[in-house]
Amino acid sequence: MANSLDPLLARHHVLVPTDNAFQRRARLLQALWREEHGLAIGEHRGRPLGSRLAMPAAKETLTNYLTPTVRRVVRDEVLDPKRNSGKLYGQPRIFNDLLSSQPLCFNLFGELQADPDLASRVFRRLTDGRIETVTAIAFEHSPGRSDANYTGDRSAFDVFVEYVARDGALGFVGIEVKYHEDLSDPPAPHRARYDEVAAEMGCFDSKALDLLKKKPLQQIWRDHLLAGSLIRHEARGYEDGFFAFTHPTDNDCCGRAVASYRACLKDEGSFVAWTLERIVEAIQVEGGAAWVDALHSRYLAFDALEQHLKASAGTQT
Length: 317
Known about the structure:
This protein is of the alpha/beta class. It has helices at residues 2-11, 21-36, 57-61, 68-79, 93-96, 101-114, 116-126, 192-201, 209-212, 218-232, 252-262, 276-285, 289-299, 303-316; strands at residues 41-44, 47-53, 131-141, 157-165, 170-177, 240-247, 271-275.
């Protein structure tokens, strides 16, 4: 399918030679969404790129975000200098990059932040009742960047959910959200603190530690360690907590990494993997209304690409 997509990708300005098969489809899906909504094309290194929005309009209008509620959350969380102090939002991509997972975080969880009752029902469903009531949702959250009480680095959760558990315990879930990423970034320098936290958590197979220090697993491991260190820091008062890694089902790179990561665990009580589709379905079932259908259409409607491919083939015959 990759070669047959090339003319269509070129026509929509998303033929990027370094993309893998999933990235090609995801990039095209975003370009089609942009065109459908009549949004001006952005650029990369002076050339049009269909998966980008034109700046500065993208920042001024926040058209990367799906609803007025989500745009309000972004203004509060990203554009307010007091609220975003110390947080690492990538700019300008958080405004103009349609593929970026940071905008996806807000599009996926912004409405839930504004509707605690819906958030509670969704996370109750996702966790089979482990979470009873969601009390807060934050973005790009770290309990303490470079703080030796945690992992001693600048790691943060994309999304951080505080909750009251079924048994009344105060808990949290730290969430890492991926969309098109292939986890191929070079691993960060190893820190002795990682080994200390891993030993305290006791859930890792000691024979797998060398694998956890390398790509594609290190980023997952570091976020899991951050969650483990947080629940062990008594001053925070958490009695329950876990780390969740989220990605689309068709992102094979992430899927394989999750399978490899699970093979490194002796105990999965503090780690879960949720597909993006599973979260979207939970929101739909619990009454997410039209906004979640719009989210699915933008990020997960890969079957629509087949229709475009057939239409493209028809125009060439």
